Amino acid sequence: MRKVLLSVIPIGLLAIVIWVAVRECQAHELTGLSFRPLPAAAATALMAINFFAVVFIWRMNLAHLGHVLALRVAISIYFLSNAGRYIPGKIWQIAGAVALARREGVPEEVTLSASAAGLLANILTGLLIGTLALWGQLTESALALSLFITLAVATAVLLCTPLFSKMMAIHTLITKRSVPRVHFSPAHMALLTLLNALRWLLCGLAFHLLILALVPDAEISLLVSVGAYPAAYTLGLLALIAPGGIGVREGVLVLILSDSLGAGMAAVVAAAARVWTTALEALFTGWAVWHFHSRMRS
Fold first, then answer.
1. How do the domains of the chain map onto residue ranges?
2. What is the rounded CA–CA span in Å between residue 111 and residue 31?
3. How far apart are CA 53 and CA 62, in angstroms?
4. What's the CA dihedral at 184, 190, 194, 199 to 10 degrees?
């Protein structure tokens, strides 16, 4: 019963956001809301580049540990395993990547380490960019909480090598199999953090273009848009009860964008952003399924 209730909470949050968006549209008869194809296309192109950047970073982590995957194979594995984000528990995406990469000869501990390092750097940079970009909008308590979370994740990243060593020790204890030591150099972790920071800036720009595509007269600064999306996405990622960050991401976006767009229009943008990113992910996942079955038949 408890698990069912926890699963319902994020769905309820998303339902509230959609309800507010629909009410806003009905009350104002879509005043100020439109669709501009050019900024929408530019936003979609930038978000697609972001998806490929995620795959590139994950593939780079594997290569650093001595296992190089063909680009098409890496794209297929990432998007197939990415569907696991929508299963409650937050572990299924990495578990899927481990299982699929094992078919390509990549040891479990290597895929686990590559995925975990990418996830830690992803969370760190997302929180950091979100906090810095939204500094002026945050209350003292919210700012203190954001900085605390950022420092906690930063510490985890800096201690990644001993953390991975402990993970491998636990793996050995459970499976009764010794595994080679897996770690990342400080230079690689610095590069990993930089690439993720650039990727989040790209996401923020794409989100800003999406807002302009839907609300051409929106009086919102680029800084707010760039900070809003990484902050909302990362907090959704950290919400253990929300598969895919459903509800949490939209709720955070509404809170951040309300001052600039109004609560109703912010809800419209948040709901549209969810549909937009999910549709794009579904497109790439469909290709990944086709590629996987093609390789299975050959």
1. 33-241+272-297
2. 49
3. 14
4. 20
Six token digits for residue 25: 């549209």
Q: Look at residues 277, 227, 270 and name the one whose alpha carbon lies nearest to residue 247.
A: 270
For residue range 226-264, list pLDDT tens digits in order: 889 998 998 888 877 777 788 888 888 988 898 888 888
Q: Report the Cα 204 to chain-centroid distance in Å.
A: 12
Would you say 227 and 134 are in contact if contact means Cβ atoms under 8 Å apart? yes
Question: What's the whole-model pTM score?
Answer: 0.79
| Three-class SS state of 71 | helix
Q: What distance, in Å, lies between the first and last C-alpha atoms of the chain?
A: 45
Residue 29 pLDDT class (50, 70, 90 cuts):
very low
> For residues 226 and 223, what is the distance between their CA atoms, to the nearest angstrom?
5
